[in-house]
């Protein structure tokens, strides 16, 4: 006899108790169980239960105006709300009202890196106390610094902790949080006993580990899965099943509007890898030459040199912002098949989407779990990473996004920047209203930004330059007008843009004095010209010689 686990939404949600610790899947809107979240909050509004829920999300199952963001707005407007007591979130940036709840000390707010949170579910499922890692040492995540606390209520309650431990005399960080007793996950298809597949999803993130964490001892909890369709038991291919049925208690069918592939896409078979589009149909239009493209080109130039050095394609991670534009430039240069890109949510290859659709890729050739993807980053399996920066200081420390009154969270940055053997930090040299042009192979600064980004001391250390040097990382900082390298003596200016005054346009715009390389040179002129740089021919010649 087959016991069917497909139930009405109200029956499933009614099983969730007060004070529940709920793990929820979702890389932005990818595999975000929005219908379960909506009905959970509607039950609270109707009955007053469950109360004092604590959420563990990685990175966040929403986008602007998504269900969780709308719930956060209602909670924010209810000064007596008893629904949400706190959250562990790796990227609250897509929910302005969640940020307000944290900033105004209305709920406990904690943050870790995406990779650490991914591994947390796997480690808790194994019965371990938490995650042991070096990621975050001597940054704001270190227990001797902020410990990932986002507000005073978190500092007081300390529900999630980061402490220093020693193994064989070497320091590590131990990340601890409550074990979830409820998990919400999402897939495409479930059979009658709960076997879950993800064939129409753009990622499957940590859904297996989240289910295992809830089911593990002590006090095994419940797992509820949201799907768009149900199949007969025995009709799903075993190797397609991402979460076996015995780990799932209830299956709920969601309306299409709460089961979108990503924030702005209902369904595109290219995102789930069901169709791999011809390269010729993607990114064929050339982007205009501006300062962002100059930076992206300089990043790609560094990667091309690495391809030549290694004599093979390279595996890379491109962060959000300017680094994400490197893939388009690689396509323009015809070397996209030599730069294998990865996205934190699990895809390899393809064209990564941007903004709230970030996490999905058009035409990936592989999709793995998020925890396994972050093993590629933390273990230095990738060849190089390029990540954005907001502030850099004289020790090479980097703050990518955190300022007073601003709470986007670290995302995958701490793990990727710590683990990659080579890191290219990239961004505009200054911030603020700017008018900077590329003209005739030179840079013309008509109006510069009035906010310094190379500062004496960053507001929050998210990447530690001294730790990177100890690990032997190769680290450079690329801007539209200057390229620096991290050394034991500090930042060294190695390149400057043609057409600019080093003293006026670089040194006077920094809050500290960098070292000047004895081999200081102009950035290559081809970076500033509209025609392609000719990297394909250079790389092919180098590989043929090897």
How would you describe the overall organization of this protein?
- 24% of the residues lie in helices and 25% in strands.
- The chain has 14 helices and 33 strands.
- The chain has 2 domains: 9-119 and 179-254, 3-Layer(aba) Sandwich (Glutaconate Coenzyme A-transferase), CATH 3.40.1080.10; 289-545, Glutaconate Coenzyme A-transferase.
- The model has no long low-confidence stretch (mean pLDDT 95).
- The chain is an alpha/beta fold and 546 residues long.
Keywords summarizing the entry:
single chain; 546 residues; alpha/beta; Glutaconate Coenzyme A-transferase; 2 domains; eight-stranded mixed sheet; seven-stranded parallel sheet; 25% strand
How much beta, percentage-wise?
Answer: 15-25%
The CATH class name of the largest domain reads Alpha Beta
Strand order of the largest sheet: 16-15-21-24-30-31-32-33
- The number of distinct helices, counting runs of at least 4 residues, comes to 14
Largest sheet: 8 strands, mixed
Q: Estimate the global geometry from the Cα principal axes.
A: globular
- The CATH homologous superfamily of the largest domain is called Glutaconate Coenzyme A-transferase
Measured between the Cα atoms of the first and last residue, the distance is 63 Å
Radius of gyration: 24 Å
The second-level CATH architecture of the largest domain is 3-Layer(aba) Sandwich
CATH level 3 topology of the largest domain: Glutaconate Coenzyme A-transferase
Give start-end ranges of low-pLDDT stretches: none
Estimate the mean pLDDT confidence: 95
- How many structural units, i.e. domains? 2
Class per helix and strand makeup? alpha/beta
The total count of strands amounts to: 33
Helix fraction by DSSP (H/I, runs of at least 4): 10-25%
